[in-house]
Amino acid sequence: xxxxxxxxxxxxxxRPLRTRLAVAASAAVALVAVGVCTAAFFVLRFELYHQLDxxxxxxxxxxxxxxxxxxPGVLAGECRFLSAPACAQVVPGDPAKDPSRPYLLPVSPPVxxxxxxxxxxxxxxxxxxxxxxxxxxxxxxxxxxxxxxxLRSDTVRKGVSSAAWLLSGVGxxxxxxxxxxxxxxxxxxxxxxxRLTATAERIATTRDPSHRIELPPGPPDKEDEVTRLAAxxxxxxxxLEQSVxxxxxxxxxxxxxxxTPLTALRTNAExxxxxxxxxxAQRDRASAALGRQIREVSVLVNDLIDLxxxxxxxxxxxxxxxxxxxxxxxxxARTHWPTTPFELxxxxxxxxxxxxxxxxxxLISNLLDNAAKFSPPGAPVEVVxxxxxxxxxxxxxxxxxxxxxxxxxxxxxxxxARALPGSGLxxxxxxxxxxxxxxxxxxxxxxxxxxxxxLTLPAGPAAPA
Length: 465
What we know:
By secondary structure, this protein is of the alpha+beta class. Helices cover 52% and strands 15% of the residues. It is built from 10 helices and 12 strands.
């Protein structure tokens, strides 16, 4: 049994799913067809022989009525097809009382037992002396005698044989129909899977995730499992296409943003290579510009690395108190932007957030740098922590309605910001850090002018993604 199972498992492993499904469906339908034909054959055979037994019972009753008290011996020796009088003879229970004339029908020990009452009446198939098949009934005749009646069963045997051939043909046709139905079921049922496979192979060959699987029309609640699988695959392809598009856009934007500072670095480096032709003031100015540009490129590259991961690192978390973190970050911003006053309002000094302090400090620092960059000299930047929200407001030109939906996009810079330093990655990184900590960062128009950035803290504990 184990060898058969291993052979079946090996066969399944080396056959495609369509073949296995076709064989399974064909085998199921063929088994039903063969089972029905077999059952019909046995029912028909039983009914034909039952009808013959009824005729034998009638013939036996007639023989008993017409030959009461008859001596042992042959009563009728002519067997007609399914008609009376049948071949009939009386057999005594004691073999010593047998007549001198031989019996026409075979006499066996069970016949003597019926005569003596030791056995119930029974029917059996026999062969007559002339070699023809017959059906014989043995029943008590009275006293210690038994009556044997027989009818030829040619027509019954021919009927059973014809039924066997007919039902065999029907069964064979059923098997062929089952094979055709199995092939049709496998081809129709696995058509979406074939389309899914072809789409996956096309994507693997062309590396283009824009391909989709065609879905049959109909309401979503009437879809079958394969259609839902195809729909899920299309959804996955959509997400993959967005990811690939975002990756390509990031590479394109990064190459565009790096081109200008790298060109400036190359220019200053070539200028310093001819330092013997420069005055001391020119060398100092070129060296300062080179150092500043190196720092800008380093910051830009670090930001690109963080954004390219599209997720936050997951070091050990801790419960971060936002008030001390805000105070420290604002003090640092004051040193970077000495001409911009920062007003800090810690009305909710007990607010905490599970997270990474360095990443949260980076988020707040980016918001403060953005606000200070757009604030006019002397205009304050207002930082308020109140009721589970952190707001950072500046009094600059604000965000144009057309730019508001894109302020958190990578490398996006509004028209009025293109002359200012920066790479357009600060707000994108701030939103990424906020989402990783379960918070929501949004941009708004501030009442009275300026931009307002609102960081809504999560209601319950949150962890970095």
